[in-house]
Amino acid sequence: MDRYARQTVFGHIGVEGQEKLLKSKVTIIGMGALGTVSANNLCRAGVGYIRMVDRDYVELTNLQRQVLYTEDDAKQSLPKVIAASNHLSKVNSEIILEPIIADVNPANIEGLVSDADLVLDATDNFEIRMLINEACHKYRKPWIYCGALGSVGMTMNILQDADTPCLRCFFNESDSSGGESCSTFGVLNMITVTMASIQSAEALKIILGSDSVRREILSVNLWDNCFDTNEIQKNTDCPICVHNRYKHLGKATGSYTTALFGSDSVQIVPPHPLKVDFNLLAERLKKIGDVRVSPYSLRFSDSKYDIMLFQDGRAIIKNTIDGNNAKSVYSEYIGL
User: Do residues 191 and 182 lie in contact, with contact meaning Cβ atoms separated by under 8 Å?
Assistant: First the structure.
């Protein structure tokens, strides 16, 4: 307990609370600006099992706000969860870190949340948030919604109590499509650190069963010096938490493409996970462009496209925003 001495002396935690934290399991979905701060806080606080899920790799533009990554991680194009795990394992070797390189979708979401004590939303995608909302409601797992853009952030605890709202109670389906992104609108690292710190503080309170868990939605605007809370009423006709209808959770999964908004990239996910032989593929691709291979990915670039291919066959193709074009590029260059 020595490493947690400054935390156990805090009256609301103590040794008993610390032992409870060490036995808890948290899933963090998204390891960008919010996820890196929350993972760092929970790791240092002694949450015993942290599952980190992200589909992306480290780039130089991430370093302005994603606190666990370095220039060397960006040069290597390391998957974010691998870079985060490498860093945090040096901070606290006494907890379990589970990095998962994956695109969160209806086929895998239940396995990511069903055995967790708590789920943290650190994504920038409302469709994934709706999926988290449905899966967590199905398994009655508390989760914490959190988002930030520009100088504004918002967070709310979804507690699964009979009288408390879920995300669908106050966000309609129309809220889950389009909108600005950090790439196009910008974001202050101070707001992402602020919101993730609030999220991780609420995480400790939820795990410990505190009476101080916030039940309102919190909105923060650091630039305009605004901190507001608003009570959200449960929608008595909510399709999720009242009628148990899971629109996103029940979607069929096959091969699909996702435009990564604001980054001129398209992600392609094959219908079934593959086992890619990077070395064999690299021999073919190096005849037509530059190839870099790591234990986690293969990166190919030529004068037109930049392709990051992962071991399961998933790829992120830069310099295109059209799904059909991305599929053609995938078929021509990868051909799996």
Answer: no
280-334 pLDDT, tens per residue? 999 999 999 999 999 999 999 998 889 999 988 999 999 888 888 888 888 888 8
CATH architecture of the domain with residue range 2-230: 3-Layer(aba) Sandwich (3.40)
pTM score, two decimals? 0.90
Using alpha carbons only, give the angle 202, 204, 209 rounded to the nearest 5 degrees. Answer: 95
The segment(s) of the chain belonging to CATH 3.40.50.720 are 2-230
The Cα–Cα gap between 125 and 95 comes to 29
**What's the CATH number for 256-333?**
3.30.310
The whole-angstrom separation of Cα 57 and Cα 195 is: 23
Instruction: Count Cα atoms within 13 angstroms, Cβ side, for 315.
Output: 32
Taking the C-alpha atoms of residue 136 and residue 165, their distance in angstroms, rounded to an integer, is 13
- CATH 3.30.310 location in the chain: 256-333
For the stretch 52-77, pLDDT in tens is: 999 999 999 999 999 999 999 999 99
Are 45 and 19 in contact, with CB atoms under 8 Å apart? Answer: no
The DSSP 8-state label assigned to residue 312 in this structure reads T
